[in-house]
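Quiz preparation item.
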């Protein structure tokens, strides 16, 4: 008797400017997915997610470079991430929960860095080979509030965290007004200024309805 093919897993992406609180909630989201949908969950991140992509991440965060070079390096890491990690997990029927994906490139390198969004989209279309999120959860926070949060973390800032408030306002603007073409209807925007319990209540509603 032939086995029924396993249903493809779902791909969930968390987005938002640095300090918006994605990392605060990622374990809660994963736990909710497991309990509500009875599936395995791969927690991953971008840039990063594979040994090669993690090396690219270190270059991006700490080595000075042209902003278009950033786009190309992010895309190279993303392609490896999809081929070696995200794609196989989805084929197994697992759900993938990723901290950042295409919209981060559009927001940071496009909004923050001024790179043409059409060019970014073309590069990502080649890199992603049709693998796109089923749902994007955007943690929205004013740039000055996010800056205060980052200042309370301690430790050395990377190249992006060290940018000024005006840079992050441009990043936030792209997140709010120019999400990935075709992806707006798959995006849920959360007010990241709310307290943790209220945000997690909203997240629970989103996850159980996926």
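Solution:
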């Amino acid at each position: 008797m032939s086995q029924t093919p396993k249903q493809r897993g779902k791909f969930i992406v968390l987005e938002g400017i640095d300090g918006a609180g994605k990392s605060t909630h990622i374990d809660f989201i994963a736990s909710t997915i497991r309990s509500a949908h009875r599936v395995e969950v791969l927690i991953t991140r971008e840039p990063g997610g594979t040994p090669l992509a993690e090396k690219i991440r270190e270059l991006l965060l700490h080595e000075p470079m042209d902003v278009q070079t950033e786009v190309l390096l992010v895309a190279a890491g993303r392609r490896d991430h999809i081929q070696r990690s995200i794609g196989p997990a989805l084929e197994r029927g697992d759900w993938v929960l990723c901290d950042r994906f295409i919209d981060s490139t559009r927001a940071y390198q496009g909004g923050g860095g001024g790179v043409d969004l059409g060019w970014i989209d073309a590069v990502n279309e080649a890199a992603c080979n049709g693998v796109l999120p089923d749902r994007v959860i955007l943690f929205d926070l004013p740039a000055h509030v996010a800056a205060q949060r980052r200042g309370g973390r301690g430790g050395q800032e990377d190249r992006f965290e060290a940018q000024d408030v005006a840079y992050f306002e441009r990043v936030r603007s792209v997140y709010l007004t120019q999400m990935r073409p075709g992806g707006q209807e798959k995006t849920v925007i959360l007010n990241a200024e709310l307290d943790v319990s209220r945000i997690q209540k909203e997240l629970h509603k989103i996850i159980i309805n996926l």
